[in-house]
Design a protein that fits this description.
- By secondary structure, this protein is an alpha/beta fold.
- The protein has two domains: 131 residues, D-Maltodextrin-Binding Protein, domain 2 (3-Layer(aba) Sandwich), CATH 3.40.190.10; 86 residues, D-Maltodextrin-Binding Protein, domain 2.
- The strands form four sheets. Strands 8, 9, 10, 11, 12 and 13 form a six-stranded mixed β-sheet that branches. A three-stranded parallel β-sheet has the order 5-1-6. A three-stranded antiparallel β-sheet has the order 2-3-4, with helices on one face.
- 36% of the residues are buried.
- The chain binds arginine.
- One of its GO terms (molecular function) is ligand-gated monoatomic ion channel activity.
- It comes from Candidatus Avimonoglobus intestinipullorum.
- It holds the Pfam family SBP_bac_3.
Amino acid sequence: MKKGFLKLMALSVAAVLSMGMLAGCGEEQGTTDEQAGGGTKDVLVMGTNAAFPPFEFVVGEGQGLVGEFDGIDVAIAKKIADKMGKELQIEDMKFEGLVAAVNTGKIDMAVAGMTVTPDRQESVDFSDTYFTASQVMVVQPGSDIKSAEDIKEGKKVGVIMGYTGDGIVTDDLGVAEGNITRLNRGIDAVQDVKNGKLDVVVIDSATGKALAEENGLEVVEDPTVFETEEYAIALPKGNEEMLNTVNEVLAEMKANGEIEELAKKYN
Ligand code: ARG
């Protein structure tokens, strides 16, 4: 009787142990696979949202710096890939999904005219900054909108989903929800200003200027209200090696004037 009980105990201990070992095995295998995939690949995957000229936009197939993609960010990312001896691959996705994509390893980095914000810093590491921007207002020529104050009430205000401009219009200016339209792309928002569906679009300066020019619209600035924002590259948290390489490339491109040249070339 006593023997039988001990035997049962021993058996169940063995069963629990082997289950634990199996579970351990599975976990280890998963990690190894991932590491093998990450370590041996010779492509660097840049995530972006290519509706943001002059930083990233789509041209004809094969006519961009990388496939159909062109712009300041594409040029910078290409330098980074070159430095790493990798081939640059571009994943065009919703801007809103970029931080999560970096965080989960779906992409290696997000290069997307992305403003450094405390919120985003909780999920990703940012490189050194490479461009200073601010929000501007894109309006029809002759509009009565002359300052940020003028859009607080009674105007149909467009913003782009997930952009910093959305937070500024919603939280800082306190524009009523009923007056805000959130669109997926700056290009569409600006079209709506052109056809009168919106009175104004609040968007990043360089992009606002580029889109206004293309569409015969005007840009209104208000530096007292719209503070400067800094663009940086979003990287997975804690990847010191990659952060250093990216910062080295940015430092080189700043020191030799390449970034400035790119800004001129694409504007
Ligand atoms: N700078 C703004 C932000 O970080 C807008 C960036 C949009 N970039 C893009 N590639 N669509 O929210």
